[in-house]
Amino acid sequence: MPGSFKTEAVVLRSIRYGEADRVLHLYSADRGRLGAVAKGVRRVRSRLGGRLEPLARVRLVLHQGRGELCTVSAVDTVHAHAAVRERRTSLERAVQACDSVLRLFDSAEPNMPAYNLLCNQLALLDADPAAATRAQALAYRAKLLLAAGFAPELASCATCGEREHLAAFSPSAGGVVCAGCEAGSFPLSPDAHGFMSTALGRPLAEAPEASERALGQADRALAETLEHHAHVKLRRVA
Ligand SMILES: [Zn+2]
């Protein structure tokens, strides 16, 4: 249905298009993924250009024509995340945060928990250089899996329901497994198990810490669960 509408969104990616335009990949609060053309934004005097950088959280007026892409009519900044751009590690984490949403949420189905998580992660990275850690990035990823409906089973054996001796993780079973069900699994330390459970149970701003070894196992568990069940490959969180 052609016409204009308002939405709030994060700019995930921006690609050069034609002489002076850009195509934007947006993740919106109420319409999920959207593609939009920002016309003339690469011209020096563009009113829209500076506000539509990747990582920016914006309020938009979009025009839906007959094509697949909307056209940006107006834009207001909610949060530019300008400080993130000044720090390399924070910037890398922020780009990673957007990339996960880009790969995991590609439908026009809105997902408010996922949108809020992305906004929170970008705001945290902007406010505090110390938030740009591997543990913080993995806590964000664990919560994003939960929002996408792919959170691993961590409370009991994903195969048989046993609640003790859970020392391995099976991506195909989708969670921790007991000694009797460990085919196709890899070892998971109590620290890695605890890290994922705690990360999922706490607000993003209170992400737990863990050893590099535990974080490596948690990273593998999250990534392989997604590969197996969502057929989505995310870059590992180094
Ligand atoms: Zn079992």
Textual characterization of the structure:
With 238 residues, the chain is an alpha+beta fold. It has 5 helices and 8 strands. The strands form 2 sheets. Strands 1-2-3-5-4 form a 5-stranded mixed β-barrel. A 3-stranded antiparallel β-sheet has the order 7-6-8, covered by helices on one side. Strand 4 and strand 5 form a beta hairpin. Helix 2 runs antiparallel to helix 3, helix 3 crosses helix 4 and helix 4 packs across helix 5. The longest helix has 18 residues. The relative contact order is 0.12. Zinc ion binds next to loops.
Draw up the topology in text.
Elements: E1 3-17, E2 21-28, E3 32-38, E4 57-64, E5 70-79, H1 88-104, H2 112-127, H3 134-148, E6 168-170, E7 175-177, E8 186-187, H4 190-201, H5 212-229
Helix pairs in contact: 1-2, 1-3, 2-3, 3-4, 3-5, 4-5
The site of zinc ion has 8 residues, from loops.
